[in-house]
Amino acid sequence: MEIAQVVGLALMVTIFLLILRQEKPVMAVLLSMVFSILIFILMMGKMASIISVMQELTRRAGINFFFMTTILKILGVAYLGEFAAVICQDAGEQAVAKKVEFASKIIIAVLALPIMVAILESLLELMPG
């Protein structure tokens, strides 16, 4: 699905949401969630293409695939955390959205820890004495 189709679908869903929010707010939240999940599923193919290209570039460059895998996991956590937080905000649950954002940040920090350790170890090896 290209951007024009995404924008067109988003505009139609937005109009439906404006109407539904006045009459049936619960249905508006459900429609928003369905739209979000639909867009996420439709973009999975494009994300798979990005991952495939990154894997090939990593292999050709001779870079340790552990680092690229970790970076891709971090990106995944960031996107999924943002996705879930926005859905919670759409449902009017800002407190839950903030908790999802907090958890995502902690998970990202934990995932990044091995990369930070590797960088610090490399720096220590370069330092004299």
UniProtKB/TrEMBL annotation:
Superkingdom per UniProt: Bacteria
Signal sequence, start to end: none
Keywords assigned by UniProt, alphabetized: Membrane, Transmembrane, Transmembrane helix
Pfam families, per the entry: SpoIIIAC
Transmembrane spans: 31-53, 65-86, 106-124
Name of the protein described by the UniProt record: Stage III sporulation protein AD
Species this chain originates from: Syntrophomonas zehnderi OL-4
